[in-house]
Amino acid sequence: MNESTELWQEDPATPCAFNRALNIELGTRKNGKLFDDLTPAQQVRVTRAAKTLGISMDILQKTLPWAAGAIVAATDQPRHMSVYKVDDSKELVLKCFQARGAKVNPELAECDDWIHFYADFP
Fold first, then answer.
1. C-alpha 53, offset from chain centre
2. What are the phi and psi torsion angles at 8 (to 5°)?
């Protein structure tokens, strides 16, 4: 690590905000339903999560799997963050590189790049 001249991170430099409009634009199905792409066991899990979080199954059925996951994650974020245990190893590595003046690069520079990343999968 001491010999590295730059650090590549998965995340953008600033925390992402959920871009609902772009998620809807790229994540809405052109045909079929979400359950067309899921196994019976996955269908049960999605139904249970939707019910727990108060998400309409009609809305989820109109999405691609990655978009349904983003909706569930964004809806569950307040609960998730309330029990999240911060792992400061990422911060420690970042500070080591910054202290040496090494370049720090995000793999995906903008928050919307994450949505395009998933939307571009076949």
1. 17
2. -110, 125
